[in-house]
Amino acid sequence: MDVEVAAAAFEADLLPPKALSDGAVTAELRLADREWRRWGARRVCLIGEAEERGLARREGYLSTTAWLMAVSGEPAAVCRSQVGVAEALQEMPETRAAFASGDLPESRVRVLAQAQALCPEQFARDEARLVAEVTAAPSQQVPRVLARWKRSTDLGAAEAEAERLHGRRGLHVSEDWSGMLRLSGLLDPGSGLVVLNTLQALTDPAHLDPNDRRTPAQARADALVEVCRRYEQAGGRRRGPQVLVTIPWGTLHTGQGVVDTACGPIGARTARRLTCDATISRVLLDPESVPIELGRATRVIPDRLRALLELRDQGCTWPGCGRPASWCDAHHIQHWAQGGSTDPSNLRLLCSYHHTQTHEQSWRPRRQ
After folding, report:
1. Contacting residues for 65 by C-beta, under 8 A, at least 6 apart
2. 143 and 180 belong to one structural domain
């Protein structure tokens, strides 16, 4: 009852939203967000206490999740996640304190809990730094902060995760009852970079008519159609994707590690595949990893050499593959970062699928 009385007194002091000035709307919303987080932290603390006491079974429920579903009315998946966060916070004092103060929203607490589960001992040593970085980072940067930490903790696991994401890629195309074509799917970060950069280039408001009344979703749909239309009009002539990725030299040279991109981490083997035929520039970084010098851009496979490869190979050189040359990448049999030469004897055309297989599985197809 004390809680209800306090809440009623707090509400009595609030003005109706329409009576607030513009600045007051913003200020009160920020205050409400902070209080929402503090109450969220209190709620998670109560869930943890209920779990510790075994309250659910004393009240006749099979689990704390089932008890929370009855108390809150939330679905099982939400309640299960909240119970998991409450359990994890028992071993996360810095996170728990930031959550309770209102500095950290529950969404970020949840991702920190996932990181803690990955490597509890290392997380305990790094928790204060991680909480500070996650609290200060813009929302879109939070996954990258944790991805860097995960790589430093377990590089093998990070590489395995990049491969797992590649394995989950897929695109579903079907006609719905209205006659519209429905697209849905997932792309791994390396493929996502190509698609995202192309769609952004075609939907950038700076390049569109100021009177364009399309929604962002409609503009993206039209951009996808435009890409396909241009491909048809070009007769299938292949043009390399315009993607900017900064790749450490050591990653290319050793073939080990993970590289951050705008869409997420990609493995070293994917980085090597992307750089088999790309435009390369040397970038010098200062001790804080800030670029201070950009060298001249150089095409790995010059146009004349590409034309020679197309004339020689006619298409994908993977045995049994009939994809035309315009669909193919120029593949270095021995990657140039390992001293391989960029000449016809060390180059083969491979379609995108078989190029990926060659790098990911280290297969070595022979030209027929």
Report:
1. 76, 79, 80, 83
2. no
The encoded tokens of residue 139 equal 């929302």
The Cα-based distances of 141 to 95, 96, 108, 133, 138 in angstroms read: 18, 21, 11, 10, 5
Return the pLDDT at 24.
Answer: 86
Query: What pLDDT does residue 313 have?
Result: 92
Q: What is the pLDDT of residues 308-326, one digit of tens each?
A: 999 999 988 988 877 788 7
Q: Which domain holds residue 45?
A: 2-156
- Mean pLDDT per 10-residue interval, the chain, length 368 residues: 50 74 87 85 88 89 90 88 87 89 86 84 89 87 82 73 81 83 87 85 75 82 80 55 62 71 70 74 66 66 88 89 81 85 89 78 50
CB 115 within 8 A of CB 236: no
- What tokens appear for 123 in the block? 């997380």
How far apart are the C-alpha atoms of 329 and 256, rounded to whole Å?
22
Q: Is residue 190 part of a domain?
A: yes
Residue 274 in domain: no
- In this structure, the number of other CB atoms found within 10 A of the CB of residue 217 comes to 9
